[in-house]
Amino acid sequence: MCGIIGGTGETPVLPLLVEGLRRLEYRGYDSAGIALPAHGTIWRRRKAGGTRSISELGEGVGDAPPGITCGIGHSRWATHGAPTEVNAHPHTDASGRLAIIHNGILENFRELTHDLPRRGAELVSETDTEVLAHLIAAEVAGGAGLADAVRTCLRRVEGKFAIAVIHADEPDLIVAARRSSPLVCGTDATTAYLASDIPAIHGKADRFYVIDDDRVVELTPGAIRVTDLQGSELVPEEREVTWDLAAAEKGGYPDFMSKEMYEQPAAVRDTLLGRIVQGRIALDQVRLSDEDLRMIDKVYVVACGSSYHAGLVGKQAIQHWCRLPVEVEIASEFRYQDPVLGRTSLVVAISQSGETIDTLEAVHHAKQQGAPVLAVCNVVDSSMARDADAVLYTRAGPEIGVASTKCHLAQLVAMQVLALYLAQVRGTSYPEEVAERLGHLEQIPQRVAAALESADTVKGIASAPDVRDARDFFFLGRGVGRAVALEGALKLKEISYLRAEGYPGGELKHGPIALIEPGTVVVAVATRSRLAGKVLSNVEEVKARGATVVLVVDERDVDVPAVRKLADHIIPLPGTGHELFQPIVDNIPLQLFAYALATARGNDVDKPRNLAKVVTVE
Ligand code: F6R
User: Fold this and answer.
1) SS (H, E, C) 180-228
2) Domains of the chain with bracketed CATH
3) pLDDT digits over 217-245, tens only?
4) Cα(473) to centroid of ligand 1, in Å?
5) Which protein residues touch ligand 1 with a CB less than 6 Å away?
6) What are the tens digits of pLDDT across the range 197-219?
7) So which residues are the catalytic ones?
């Protein structure tokens, strides 16, 4: 995530930057900063204060040199390095005459740092971004113009970026560029603008431009020039913007939940980014040594809510790939079960926020018993990330909707990465097996995008009278599909306020089947797996008792006679190459289903009643 903003024109730029950062706050707020080229040097102000960063920055720019008409600003969602002021953007070179802001991850930044001593530069922050400041400055010192210097350096960069760079020697110029991270540019008669998202410059620019990957943009007052990385000039495509500002802050979506659902391909991709290197997993923030990980003889997963459901899938992945016994426990219960913990038990705490008190207490309990703790968190430097011995960050960006969507998917991916990493370190899978599974994982962002295309089908099902008017819902699944069923039921309860139960299909006849009657809706997850046939048998049982059946199946199975016979409604989905990966895709239509029913009832899906995004009370 991270938000970037910049402008160069004829009027003072500071108000544009402060207001733009405020509008981009939903992209991250660990820290915020502004830089202006002023009188032969760079004036810079940064604040790291969590949610207060942007307002404190706004209050702290009163001493900026007056009348400066060019500048850049950044709001940070930390990925490399703690959310401190020293790590806040903009970063400068050693001379303090160049400043850069960046959204993304430079995958080969360690390699790039090897060049720094030769160039007499030293990193002062823990960020991947700062290395680019030094490299570009060195090109400029060697006689290149700023735009040429940026192009030269970016040809060496691997990873994702949207950057903007200024230099005191060319005080009206901003050089921006992108690969995979969002960047829009705009102009009016006197000013050129750049931002991560339209909202930051909405109502300012008259014209907006789409910037493609590997393009470098030179912004001067009222104009932009676009080239490729070799310097050949290209004509940018103009982009029509018809949204009003309120919609624009949600990227054109009606609410954050739908925006976040559609960010899921990126959340999955970013969680994998830089972690798969030549068919092997590289987890540099997992600070537990290979030796420690080889000694582990039992894994406990602790989490709450959707994070707990990710743990249920993680358990099966670790048991399958690593042949290690795993227990998954609801975090609020963990301490009271007298878990048998020691140096050889690994406790994995999963939490989007990293602040959920029950999970934090479980972590503290595990540490007191001498067990190593690994946190799977989305918020960098959250309490859990700091208290744990090791962290595996999901990189879904800030999640604002209370119902977890993109962070849950990122957790599912992170748990697969962790399971395969343990298999790699402990030698329970051959390297070529790990490589093959990673190959499947790398395809999943496309599968997630394809699953999101089921939105119209799902909306149609949710508006069919036999579903729309129902009051009781059951979600069934088996194996990892059980976790999907639990999560589907939780989503529906949370945002639609309808009664919904998630059940392992085989357990139904041990009691709950008594509740099935005409009018009950059963959503069954029957995508391809060893257990799909058994799920269909369980569906037969509810169908015989009059339930309305919604079947989630592999798109290759829609014409299978048993599916046709049982289903009142069918949701086809793409496969993922392995049944353990299937929940990453199977969750999507269930999110869309809950969303469609909730919005049809007029509910506020971003702020469901009685719920808080972060639960800090026991
Ligand atoms: C459900 C949801 C909650 C959280 C739970 C744990 O949509 O968002 O169930 O998953 O409160 O929160 P974290 O992951 O922050 O520990």
Assistant:
1) ECCCEEEECCCCEEEECCHHHHCCCCCEEEECCCCEEEEEECCEEEEEE
2) 3-249 (3.60.20.10), 259-442 (3.40.50.10490), 452-600 (3.40.50.10490)
3) 999 999 999 999 999 999 998 877 766 66
4) 21
5) 304-307, 351-353, 356, 359, 403-404, 490, 494, 614-615
6) 887 898 899 999 988 889 999 99
7) 2, 613
